[in-house]
Amino acid sequence: MKLRETWEKAKKFFTKIGKRNAMIACSVLLIGAAIVLNVLLFGGSDNKDGFDYSAAVGMDGSNASSGEVLSGAEGDDADSYFATSLINRQRARDEAMEVLQSVVDNESADAAAKEMALGEIGQIAADMENESNIETLVVSKGFEQCVAVVSGGKVSVIVKGEELLDTQISQINEIVYEQTGILPENINIISK
Known about the structure:
The structure is a single chain. The chain is α/β, with parallel strands linked by helices. The protein is 61% helix and 10% strand. It is built from 6 helices and 4 strands, in the order αααβααββαβ. A 4-stranded mixed beta sheet has the order 1-4-3-2, with helices on both faces. The longest helix has 30 residues, at 76-105. It is elongated, with a radius of gyration of 20 Å.
């Protein structure tokens, strides 16, 4: 009997908001999830140096924290990694912004879907600004290169270098906290 009541409630909900608007809202949520995965995986299969970046950002269930700094291979591969990461991150964000803007511009979308899309656009813009600020400030502390990914209350910071000192980890944690308000337990620092 419970299943039937739940089904009836779901039917009433979709009838009330409209199937098209529900599809738009679900599409926005799916795109947001895809962006997060794309950014966290930094292009997925472009990984040629054998380092497991998905593990570094907690995608395998482990939780690399500010106290656990992971390192990968050094050299020219590291340079191309940083360039590729920045390009992939920007491409994913551009695609998301395009889809969200199409929802906002869609005359048949309801106000709630448009409001949700505008909120997502604002969050993406804020995350982009925070990432840029973090990268600039980390490089100003003497690191050669840095890529920051802010998403869903978590931050991953990848810096070029060898094993990091505790003082460097503290500097990065402080920079991220000052820019985002995110606590160190939600910050992953990875040396590449």
